[in-house]
Amino acid sequence: MHIIADNLTITSTRIANAVQQADPAPIIDMVRFCEASGAGMIDINSGPLTRDPAEKMTFLVESARKATRLPLLLDTSNPAAMEAGLLACQGEAVINGFSLEPDKLAHILPLARKFNTRIIGYLLHPDSSVPADGAERLTVALELSARFSEAHLPPENLIIDPVVPPLIWPNGHTQAMDVVQVIRILPDLLDYKVTTIAGISNLTSGPGNAERKPVFEQCYAAMLAAAGLDMILMNMTHTGTLAAVQACNALTGTKIFSWV
Question: What is the pTM of this model?
């Protein structure tokens, strides 16, 4: 599983202040920490950016680029911000992301063709609601893949996110198991080697037992790895989960095993 850091987010007070003050130092420090911790990609979650979207996303991307040449995932629902980020990236970028929501199909998906880049597709209904179970997720996957094909985009540029639910939802634990099964089924359903991504931090979001949360993340990471997940979006300060992901990679990888 390729490890993607989700630490660079506007919901962090430190990052939000850095954007507000146009101070690149906190962003540079965070990106360097994530890369040193083992991230192979960096997610830049700018939020909707309702004010000065292009300027702020450009600042975020250019600040991150001062610290790393790793691929960047650009996470915003604002098309102007997304396009500005893609223009500023100067390296590999992934659009994060689109869904069957009409605005996303109309304004975000076309950017994947314009910039010839990969894009993450979320298995959400057109009203942005999460499918109730695995069967609904697979139905959405078929429609998402069809809309992607209609946009004349190559299937290898589509990365599917089945949407990991919080365990605190009434059916959170059963939906979490549905996600694992969906990851297994997608290649047969769509008849090609589907690239998949999952945000593991969603699993333990919200209130809960702080001591037990890491255990659930670590166990779920192993389940996702066994199902064939390709990319995992995670908090790089969660060292136990990181160690679990790295162990999963050692067990499922093709390299000769070593304890070093």
Answer: 0.95
